[in-house]
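Reference record
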Amino acid sequence: MKTALKLELEEARTMIAAAMRKAQEISVLETICITDDGGYPIAMDRMDGARVTGPQIAWNKAFTAAGHKRSTHLFNTAPNGPALPGNEAFGIQWSFEGRFAVFVGGFPIVVDGQVIGGVGLSGGNGEQDTQCGLAALEALRDLLAPKGHSVLAEADIKK
């Protein structure tokens, strides 16, 4: 029997607030989605003026990161990105009725070595989405550190 950590609304809202602050700081309009370990949304916010397509894209990225336990951009990072042509997972982006995102902006949420969810961002370029995603992960790290938990806050996550 394994004891599992579960991400709750307070943590998800803390992460979204941090990502939105970073987005405002770097002048980008983002949609941010925080999912549970099954890839289903706990919380999502779309900044005023952000693209209407953002919520679905952000959710897809968070879904992929949580479910496959890796940062979404690692699927297409040369030379060994598994979703690149000729590699073992080429075509995986058509899985789950097209919900599998293989581009930058999705990060697994790893607490005490366990993937407990995902964060997905849509609205900026890859660098901007990454900056906002890292801000979200860092905010969770800062929130949970006093409670004795460790949070992986880096761009390249593969569990």
